């Protein structure tokens, strides 16, 4: 007989009870045996597949309703079904990161006693975009509806869309300029926004009056609610078939099974032990309007990560040694950190689609309080937390890949994700109306390389593996800019035996507007925020923005003279400078400036991924193809890879000159030996440099803040470099 | 056998088998099958036709001289695309966007993947482009979304590009510029320049422009459409001509017809032949619509289960949905296609139990026909659903394809036990039945999902089940949904071919528009919108009718119907609405159109998502022109007695519902109107098998359709 006494208890007690039983038994909700699975494994499996299928179809319905290119065109959405306590049972494809952030949102409401006030009733609709309650950033707005079956709460249906406009200090969703919560945009803090399956009119009015482009948000809200209702009805139908007792038990067994599956998969694919990696992030805002005085001129982040894989298969990630949170928009909440973990697991270990919160329970995150990963001030901004999240989980992908390598799963090795800077805009549209939008073509960056082939060109981002840059003709309907170029950026993939995927760059001509504000975010410059593996190089840091105001474009086109379509491959003088006259600007880091108008030209690039293996082992024939197709310049092929390519004038194809390549590589090898020094010697040099503190101010301050916050990091840093126990960095400029 | 000769030959060449159906004026049918011959499809066509002619008892000459219609739906173009053996192309596009062919929107790196592979990013990769980057040339120009020229066309760059491509000896030159569907002047001018250069060089090169091939928004899909038209249809057309040639050789007097992906027939000279690429499965929907009319039900679910996939089509109160952006070999196109929902579910699906997690997976891989399931004994070592069917006695080991393939059941039992049943720790039969139930439940949930999107109750729908494996799994696929009726056919295995023969001649012409109707529009404004819409419909009607008349259809035989694609202003997806009127003149007419949109929208999406206060946008206007064709007739015969023993052929042990039964066997073709079969029973046909579960019944009606009734 199934134990159904639990469901009669108040929800909060039930949740606390469930957490207690997990702590006591080590198993989800105290489920120590999967008896329904044992009794009838086929029925069990079939039901899980059914739940997934209904999530997938609910998401498709929502995409039809949405007005936002983010949702309709590039799929920035996910839906899921939860237990009454808020643990995910089944989910659709899409932005997986939010499966667990919604879980946090539901649990937060339960723990806050929402069942008493404002009440949880059939037909209610709750929404949230507060990252400290459970989401990643303000534009990630989530809706959940309770599922009642004959008067009993049997679960929740939830949906998240990434909004393209959230009404912050600058237009768009990833509000780069926000330095505190108060400038991030419209907050909906676990609010009941509807009853009886209808969204409240006063809520819609609030959205319509506080957003630059309310139709995106409002129709997405309707789309999410429609999909939640669709899932709710399907779940109720299902319970009608299998019975309430069976549902209450099986939904928990699915999660416990997911937890066990995650542990088993980790044991199968990796080698237990401790893995370490790190990355950096440089945020250059010195002198940019609006960033100071609250924020520092420039920020530099060190992100060391230790991953422990235990014998039972638990993955523990520890961020000890990273920096404190700051007055910028890149802080992250534990919900966001969970999300990053979840989305990475779904791509590498749990992709078969029967994944749920159980997988997340097979992991542990150690997020030091006070750092950007777990701020001790809930008023800080998190609008662009992806800036630090993506590099951090790129490290996680490389650490996991080392585990795969250790076990021999060479095909699974993946150098991983990179940042993909976003461009956002607002002002007067080509229709003469006010508008605001985040441009989501950034959902198609280059990926890191694999150990068996090159990374994906212009077709991967960590937050959503279903990468899509969208159609130009759709984006142009939503903004007063015309593409005069959208092209692959040569040399943008990290070099290696297998190179990282390349990125692309867009070049726009501003059209039919007297006032267009352009802002960009998630730019790491001066330091690499990604890396290569096994000798592969990192991908380049962010490209700079190149902009021309007051151009002579009309004169040029009237005379049919060449105009720029990209910045070109000359690092010293861009095509813009060569071809167009006007006020030129080259800008590092996030772009923020006075409004633009028709006739201005703006360029924006995305990032490529890191490489794998030694460049001198790269296939010359493949490299010739790369040069022919614009993924690599002939100069880089020669200087970096030692591969000499020539054009066959009969066929226009590029061909590798194998003899010249062998000679060039021999020369590069000799050069490597000439420059090499013993490790001990190099460490002694660096140690002296550290003692003398011969670093840029931002570097000194970065290490000083980490050492102040973390005794463990301080002691390990000193031990490694042979420094005195009293050593610390000076923080003055 | 029949006294009359066939009047229609319908042939559906699939990836593996070419199915033929012959139909006479009295509604008799015969089926033929032969292996598809991709290199020269005419061989498979003829072999399959001969197989059917043999069954009818006539020669090929008698067959072809007697028929009025030969209808062929083939795979030539698809194979050309898959094997990358098409024509040598050059491309001229808007300068700065040449890399579009390599980037494929990002999305083409995973489009068409299974759920698991979509998430598993290391499996993603870009398809090989149809035109290399070195033969892609940019020409400076820009037209914006309103059709305004922002950057004029640099004609000298078009001239240089044309000369280079001519020197590169391309077969065809494609031209695609941004927003050419709104204002084609730059594409047209580039085409003129290119043609002039071709003429000057004395070369023979075809020129394709995207606004002529597919004047619809979304440049990546429009580019793919024009590239595929140029790349693959030449050889496809050649295959069709080959089929016409052999038909004529055996005495056929007319032109061979082929099927458009939106369900109409056209001659093999159709100017946009890529519109026929996704046509095979479409036949089933047409056949269902036709039979539905006979039996008086216009809300139908068509379900086609073969070896790898389960395709579902819907006809809701006579309306079929059009899919505007189907995917073909991972390229997204914008070709209107009768909407099909497909899940991976078929008898050839490979079954796996993960030794680590004990999770069961069905497919997505299929054993295909080579090596096929284990029981085929052709080297297959992975258990499939067909092996489970054989293990449970549902398939007759001596009558598969009429006995052409002998099934090795013992081998299937041995391997299935080792690789599946033992790992799950259940009995062999329970594991096999469980696997079948998983497949059927998948299909069953998919059917429920499809129905729930229609906004009407399942009891209004009749389910049609066909395809080689459709009847075999019919019971489980349809259980508990509450269909009004469930029907299968003696010719279930060739139902798609049959469906092709029921199609009419059709053209679908449409054009993108941008008519934004505010929710507060005045009567005068509505009258102005009405006039604009009517003008577009009139122009499209004229063009569609002219194209059909060129194919030889007299004007008085051509009917037209108008439609619109509309959305709430600001949305990105349209719903297709059949116009309640074809000429709009008053504000009330326009309101009627908007009301019709609201009604269709609410049935597809939940009412909570309505947002009329933001206004309405009409994004596309179109016209469908139709002319009737002679069709097969199903013959009504009086009902006889219910005793089916005339069709009985013995007994077989069959495992259903957790135990073995001694099931009665019947020969499907010998069942007569009025017969009733009560399960457990197996009704066999050389090309398909219908499993009747205990206490379920099958009733043969006066059209000789088989009605399945759950107990």
Describe the SSE topology.
The complex is a heterodimer of chains A (733) and B (711).
Chain A: H1 11-25, H2 35-39, H3 41-65, H4 69-72, E1 77-82, E2 88-91, H5 98-111, H6 115-119, E3 125-128, H7 131-134, E4 140-149, E5 152-162, E6 191-195, E7 198-199, H8 201-210, H9 214-242, H10 244-269, E8 273-284, E9 298-309, E10 315-318, H11 334-348, H12 357-361, E11 363-366, H13 386-407, E12 422-428, E13 434-439, H14 472-475, E14 481-488, E15 504-510, E16 516-521, E17 545-549, H15 553-558, H16 575-579, E18 583-587, E19 601-605, H17 620-628, H18 634-641, E20 645-647, E21 654-656, H19 658-675, H20 679-692, H21 697-709, H22 711-721
Parallel strand pairs in A: 10-11
Antiparallel strand pairs in A: 1-2, 1-5, 3-4, 3-6, 4-5, 6-7, 8-9, 9-10, 12-13, 12-16, 14-15, 15-19, 17-18, 17-19, 20-21
Helix pairs in contact in A: 3-9, 5-11, 8-9, 11-13, 21-22
Chain B: E1 6-13, E2 17-24, E3 29-35, H1 41-56, H2 60-66, E4 69-73, H3 76-82, E5 89-94, H4 100-103, H5 115-119, E6 136-139, E7 142-143, E8 149-151, H6 155-167, E9 172-176, H7 185-201, E10 206-209, H8 210-213, H9 219-249, E11 257-259, E12 265-267, H10 282-295, E13 300-305, E14 309-316, E15 319-320, E16 322-323, E17 327-328, E18 331-332, E19 337-338, E20 340-344, E21 349-353, E22 360-366, H11 385-391, H12 409-424, H13 428-452, E23 462-466, H14 474-478, E24 485-488, H15 495-501, E25 505-517, H16 523-550, E26 558-568, E27 575-578, H17 587-604, E28 616-627, E29 648-656, E30 659-667, E31 676-678, E32 681-685, E33 688-692, E34 697-700, E35 706-709
Helix pairs in contact in B: 1-9, 3-9, 6-7, 10-15, 11-12, 11-13, 12-13, 16-17
Task: Describe this protein's structure.
The complex is a heterodimer of chains A (733) and B (711). With 733 residues, chain A is α+β, with helices and mostly antiparallel strands. In chain A, 36% of the residues lie in helices and 18% in strands. Chain A has a 7-stranded antiparallel sheet. A 5-stranded antiparallel sheet of chain A has the order 14-15-19-17-18, with no helix packed on it. A 4-stranded mixed sheet of chain A has the order 8-9-10-11, sandwiched between helices. The N and C termini of chain A lie far apart (70 Å). Chain B is α+β, with helices and mostly antiparallel strands. Chain B has 5 domains: 6-80 and 236-276, ATPase, nucleotide binding domain (Nucleotidyltransferase, domain 5), CATH 3.30.420.40; 84-226, Rossmann fold (3-Layer(aba) Sandwich), CATH 3.40.50; 298-449 and 457-483, Nucleotidyltransferase, domain 5 (2-Layer Sandwich), CATH 3.30.420; 505-627, no CATH class; 645-709, no CATH class. Helix content of chain B is 32%, strand content 26%. In chain B, β26 (558-568) and β27 (575-578) form a beta hairpin. In chain B, 56% of the residues are buried. The interface between A and B is large, with 103 and 84 residues.
């Amino acid at each position: 007989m199934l134990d159904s006494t639990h469901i009669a208890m108040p929800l909060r007690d039930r949740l606390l009870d469930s957490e207690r039983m997990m702590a006591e038994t080590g198993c989800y909700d105290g489920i120590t045996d999967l008896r329904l699975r044992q009794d009838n494994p086929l029925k069990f499996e079939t039901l899980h597949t059914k739940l997934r299928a209904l999530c997938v179809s609910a998401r498709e319905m929502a995409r039809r309703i949405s007005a936002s290119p983010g949702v309709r065109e590039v799929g920035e959405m996910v839906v899921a079904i939860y237990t009454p306590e808020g643990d995910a049972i089944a989910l659709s494809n899409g932005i997986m990161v939010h499966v667990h952030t919604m879980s946090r949102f539901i649990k937060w409401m339960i723990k806050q006693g929402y069942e008493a006030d404002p009440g949880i009733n059939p037909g209610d609709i709750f929404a949230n975009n507060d990252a400290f309650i459970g989401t990643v950033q303000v534009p990630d707005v989530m809706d959940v509806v309770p599922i009642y079956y004959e008067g009993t709460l049997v679960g929740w249906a939830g949906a998240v869309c990434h909004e393209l406009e959230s009404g912050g200090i600058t237009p768009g969703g990833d509000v780069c300029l926000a330095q505190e919560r108060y400038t991030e945009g419209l907050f909906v803090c676990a609010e009941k926004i509807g009853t009886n399956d209808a969204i409240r009119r006063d809520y819609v009015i609030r959205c319509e009056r506080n957003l630059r482009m309310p139709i995106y948000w409002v129709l997405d809200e309707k789309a999410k609610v429609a999909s939640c209702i669709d899932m709710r009805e399907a779940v109720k139908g299902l319970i009608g078939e299998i019975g309430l007792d069976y549902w209450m038990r099986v939904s928990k067994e699915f999660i416990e099974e997911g937890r066990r599956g995650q542990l088993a998969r980790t044991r199968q694919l990796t080698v237990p032990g401790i893995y370490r990696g790190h990355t950096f992030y440089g945020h250059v805002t010195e002198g940019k309007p609006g960033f100071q005085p609250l924020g520092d001129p420039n920020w530099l982040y060190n992100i060391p990560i230790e991953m422990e894989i235990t014998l039972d298969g638990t993955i523990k990630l520890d961020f000890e040694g990273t920096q404190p949170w700051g007055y910028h928009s890149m802080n992250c909440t534990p919900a966001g950190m969970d999300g990053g973990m979840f989305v990475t697991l779904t791509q590498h270990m749990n992709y078969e689609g029967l994944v749920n919160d159980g997988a997340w329970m097979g992991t542990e995150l150690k997020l030091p309080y006070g750092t950007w990963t777990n701020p001790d001030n809930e008023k800080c901004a998190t609008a662009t937390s992806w800036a630090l999240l993506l590099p951090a989980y790129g490290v996680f992908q490389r650490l996991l890949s080392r585990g795969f390598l250790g076990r021999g799963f060479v095909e699974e090795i993946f150098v991983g994700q990179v940042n993909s800077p976003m461009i956002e805009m607002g002002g007067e549209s080509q229709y003469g109306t006010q508008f605001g939008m985040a441009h989501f073509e950034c959902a198609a960056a280059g990926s890191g390389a694999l150990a068996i082939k090159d990374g994906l060109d212009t077709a991967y981002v960590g937050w959503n593996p279903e990468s899509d840059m969208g159609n130009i003709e759709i984006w142009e309907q939503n903004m007063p800019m015309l593409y005069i170029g959208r092209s692959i950026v040569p040399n943008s993939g990290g070099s290696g035996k297998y190179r990282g995927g390349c990125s692309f760059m867009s070049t726009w001509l501003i059209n039919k507007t007297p006032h267009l504000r352009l802002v960009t975010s998630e730019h790491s410059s001066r330091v690499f925020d990604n890396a290569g593996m096994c000798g592969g190089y990192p991908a380049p840091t962010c490209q700079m923005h190149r902009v021309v105001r007051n151009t002579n474009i009309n004169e040029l086109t009237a005379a049919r003279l060449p105009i720029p379509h990209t910045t070109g491959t000359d690092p010293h003088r861009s095509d813009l400078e060569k071809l167009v006259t006007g006020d030129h600007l080259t800008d590092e880091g996030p772009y923020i400036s006075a409004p633009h108008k028709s006739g201005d030209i703006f360029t924006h690039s995305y990032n490529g991924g890191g490489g794998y293996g030694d460049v001198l082992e790269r296939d010359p024939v493949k490299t010739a193809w790369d040069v022919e197709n614009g993924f690599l310049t002939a100069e880089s092929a020669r200087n970096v890879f030692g591969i000499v390519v020539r054009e066959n004038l009969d066929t226009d194809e590029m061909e590798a000159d194998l003899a010249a390549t062998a000679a060039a590589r021999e020369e590069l090898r000799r050069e490597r030996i000439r420059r090499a020094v013993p490790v001990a010697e190099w460490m002694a040099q660096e140690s002296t440099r550290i003692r003398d503190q011969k670093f840029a101010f931002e570097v000194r301050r970065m290490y000083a803040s980490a050492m102040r916050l973390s005794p463990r990091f301080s002691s390990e840093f000193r031990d490694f470099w042979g420094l005195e126990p009293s050593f610390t960095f000076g923080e003055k400029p | 056998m029949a006294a009359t000769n066939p009047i229609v030959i319908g042939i559906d060449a699939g990836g593996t088998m070419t199915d033929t159906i012959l139909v006479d004026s009295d509604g008799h049918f015969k089926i033929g099958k032969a292996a598809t011959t991709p290199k020269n499809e005419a061989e498979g066509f003829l072999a399959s036709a001969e197989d059917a002619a043999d069954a009818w008892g006539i020669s090929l000459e008698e067959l072809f001289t007697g028929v009025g219609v030969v209808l062929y739906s083939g795979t030539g173009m698809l194979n050309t695309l898959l094997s990358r053996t098409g024509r040598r192309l050059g491309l001229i596009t808007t300068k700065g966007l040449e890399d579009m062919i390599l980037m494929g929107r990002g999305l083409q790196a995973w489009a068409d993947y299974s759920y698991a592979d979509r998430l598993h990013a290391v499996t993603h990769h870009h398809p090989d482009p149809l035109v290399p980057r070195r033969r892609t040339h940019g020409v400076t120009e820009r037209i914006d979304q309103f059709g305004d020229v922002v950057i004029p066309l640099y004609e000298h760059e078009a001239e240089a590009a044309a000369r280079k491509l001519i020197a590169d000896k391309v077969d065809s030159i494609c031209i695609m510029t941004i927003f050419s569907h709104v204002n084609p002047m730059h594409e047209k001018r580039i085409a003129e320049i290119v043609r002039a250069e071709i003429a000057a060089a004395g070369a023979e090169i075809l020129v394709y422009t995207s606004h002529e091939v597919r004047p619809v928004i979304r440049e990546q899909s429009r580019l793919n459409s024009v590239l595929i038209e140029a790349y693959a249809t030449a050889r496809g057309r050649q295959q069709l001509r080959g089929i016409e040639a052999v038909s004529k050789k055996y005495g056929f007097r007319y032109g061979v017809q082929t099927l458009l992906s939106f369900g109409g027939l056209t001659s093999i000279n159709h100017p946009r032949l890529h519109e026929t690429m996704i046509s095979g499965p479409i036949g089933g929907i047409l056949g269902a619509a036709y039979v539905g009319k006979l039996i008086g039900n216009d809300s139908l679910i068509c379900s086609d289960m073969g070896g790898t996939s389960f395709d579902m089509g819907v006809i809701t109160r006579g309306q079929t949905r059009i899919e505007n952006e189907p995917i073909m070999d991972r390229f997204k196109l914008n070709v209107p296609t009768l909407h099909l929902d497909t899940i991976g579910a078929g008898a050839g699906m490979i079954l796996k139990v993960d030794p680590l997690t004990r999770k069961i997976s069905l497919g997505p891989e299929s054993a295909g026909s080579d090596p096929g399931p284990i029981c085929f004994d052709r080297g297959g070592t992975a258990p499939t659903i067909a092996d489970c069917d054989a293990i449970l006695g549902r398939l007759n080991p001596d009558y598969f394809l009429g006995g052409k393939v002998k099934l090795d059941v013992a081998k299937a039992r041995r391997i299935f036990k080792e690789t599946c049943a033992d790992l799950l720790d259940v009995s062999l039969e329970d594991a096999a039945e469980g696997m079948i139930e998983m497949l059927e439940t998948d299909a069953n949930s998919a059917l429920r999902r499809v129905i729930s999107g229609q906004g009407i109750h399942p009891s209004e729908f009749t389910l049609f089940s066909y395809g080689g494996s459709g009847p075999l799994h019919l019971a489980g696929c349809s259980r508990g949904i509450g269909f009004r009726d469930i029907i299968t056919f003696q010719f279930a295995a060739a139902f798609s071919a049959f469906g092709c023969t029921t199609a009419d001649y059709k053209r679908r012409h449409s054009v993108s528009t941008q008519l934004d109707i505010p929710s507060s529009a005045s009567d005068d404004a509505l009258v102005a919108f009405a006039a604009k819409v009517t003008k577009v419909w009139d122009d499209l009607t004229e063009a569609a009718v002219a194209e059909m008349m060129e194919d030889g259809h007299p004007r008085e035989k051509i009917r037209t119907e108008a439609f619109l694609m509309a959305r709430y202003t600001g949305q990105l997806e349209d719903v297709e609405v059949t116009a309640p009127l074809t000429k709009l003149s008053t504000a009330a007419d326009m309101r009627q159109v908007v009301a019709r949109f609201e009604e269709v929208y609410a049935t597809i999406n939940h009412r909570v998502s309505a947002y009329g206060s933001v206004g309405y946008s009409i994004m596309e206007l179109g016209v469908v022109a139709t002319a009737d064709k002679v069709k097969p007739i199903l013959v009504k015969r009086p009902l006889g007695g219910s005793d089916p023993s005339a069709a009985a052929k013995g007994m077989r042990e069959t495992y259903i519902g957790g135990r073995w039964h001694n099931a009665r066997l019947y020969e499907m073709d010998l069942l007569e109107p009025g017969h009733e079969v009560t399960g457990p029973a197996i009704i066999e046909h050389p090309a398909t098998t219908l499993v009747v579960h205990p206490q379920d019944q099958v009733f043969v009606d006066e059209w000789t359709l088989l009605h399945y009734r759950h107990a």
